[in-house]
Amino acid sequence: MLNDAGQQPPMPMDLRDTPHRRYNPLLREWVLVSPHRTERPWQGKVHEAPQEAQPAYDPNCYLCPGNARAAGVRNPAYKSTLVFDNDFPALLPSAPDSHLDLNGLIVAHAERGICRVVCFDPRHDLTIASMGLEQIRRVVDVWVEQYNELGSIPWINHVQIFENRGAMMGASNPHPHCQTWANANLPNQPFREQDSMEQYSKAHKCCMLCEYLALERKAGERIVYENDAFIALVPFWAVWPFEILVLSRRHVGAMNELSEQERDWLSDILKQVTAGYDKVFDVSFPYSMGFHQRPTDGKDHPEWHLHAHYYPPLLRSATVQKFMVGYEMLGTPQRDITPEIAAGRLRETVKVAAQQRQAGSETVLR
Ligand code: H2U
Ligand code: ZN
Fold first, then answer.
1. Any ligand 1 atom below 6 A from CB of 171
2. Rounded Cα–Cα distance for residues 117 and 323 (Å)
3. β-strands 287-292, 244-248 pairing
């Protein structure tokens, strides 16, 4: 049958079998999905050498309480969280306002910023997955404080909170910690997301991620875990094999709009997601994660919807990771295992991890 434009309507697509490209509306780019390839990460479990257990206190760790850091400053004997200015900051608050522009082709602008480190806990051997909910909640409170404090500095327009977990992701230290980089200009990814969300809400008179959330809840197949205030799902357009997007269920732009209870639910979902990750290959799962929050430029940004991205590199075992090479560097990112299959697997590991916690039989991976 021909459609109104006199054309043959496209055939319904079998996402499980047909090579296809998926659209990422946040970044307005494509990812190539090749589901016909047979690699499946959980066929035949690969046993790796057990990871070295970490001590509760490491006298050589720069982040443990009472120890001297790399640049000589000594950490206090902190009892819960610790925030300090990065001793080797990528950005400086004092950069003079200067720029270079040669025919719009050789262009540079000075960038001011503040970089901090947040230690989650005095215990060297913990991770978000193994920390208690009250401990994680204290970290959430610190993130809100940091977002408010840094964001209220007039020239700071964006606050990026991110965690590198595991040596594979370049984490310098197993001690549970994250970083905060706050600066004047929106970094590339939030800039693109902000532009997409703004254009979408102008065109559709509603929030892009609220709409997306409703579609995902209806479909159900990409949802990994949800609680009263947050949802964790493998986005339809995921690039990394076990990528997860955590979305607030309520339309809020930043963590400082969350109620006390919602902050507890945020702590819960972070623990559920990371504990589930650790069960995928029975190793401490490496990842980079970070929150995307409303810019702190003094504007309302009603289009902005609070979310966190988890980008883990592991693909098929503790040692086989995904690399963005070849076609992906020169063309488009590509994946074999579909987001739906990855979500099914993660849903199961989150459940198993929670059951084991309840039964008191969890093996904590560090
Ligand atoms: P990772 O998130 O990649 O592990 O980085 C930790 C940060 O901690 C890194 O930016 C800082 C590094 O500069 N750091 C200090 O500020 N002082 C230290 O003594 C060690 C590490
Ligand atoms: Zn330590």
1. yes
2. 28
3. unpaired
Mean pLDDT split into 10-residue runs, the chain, 366 residues: 63 85 97 78 49 89 97 96 97 92 97 98 97 98 98 98 91 94 97 98 98 98 98 98 98 98 98 97 94 97 98 89 91 94 97 94 61
Q: At 180, which amino acid appears? A: T
**CA 324 to chain CA centroid, nearest Å:** 18
- Does ligand 1 come within 6 angstroms of the Cβ of 88? yes
Fold of domain 54-359: HIT family, subunit A (3.30.428)
- The Cβ of residue 237 has, within 10 Å, a number of other Cβ atoms equal to 21
Nearest CA to ligand 1 atom 17: 87
Distance in Å, CA 115 to ligand 1 centroid: 10
b (16+ CB within 10 A) / e for 76-92: eebeebbeeeeeeeeee
321 bridge partner residues = 314
Sequence spans of domains, the chain: 54-359
Query: What is the DSSP pairing of strand 29-33 with strand 334-335?
Result: parallel
